[in-house]
Design brief:
single chain, 7-stranded mixed β-sheet, two-stranded antiparallel ribbon, alpha+beta, OB fold (Dihydrolipoamide Acetyltransferase, E2P)
Amino acid sequence: MIAGLILCASLTAVDGDTMKSDGKNMRLLGEGVACVSGIDTPVIGSHAKCVKERKLALIAKGRLKELLTERAYGIESSSAVDKTQSNRPLVNIERVTKIEDIGRTLLQEGFARPWTPGRRNDWCD
């Protein structure tokens, strides 16, 4: 279901696959299916396993920030949340003017990798 359009001013990049809107974090699925498949980007800050992952995380966050410069988005909620303490809603976000899914763009450009349950991508290799 399309939740509606959100103005750019209320949607900001937290990391490579998380955005914040009205104080609430949302995690990108990248056209995946909640709890079955999605996207993964490098972990930012002290939770990164190595310096390379920290650097890649900042680059992925920068690219997401660039993709969020559009003025309007279609946000499709999966009605599911991730399994972290923050219970982020799992969403797909489409840039309305370019008709492209932001998560899929991150995958195609190499800023994200496919994700499946129980599998953690190694960004340090």
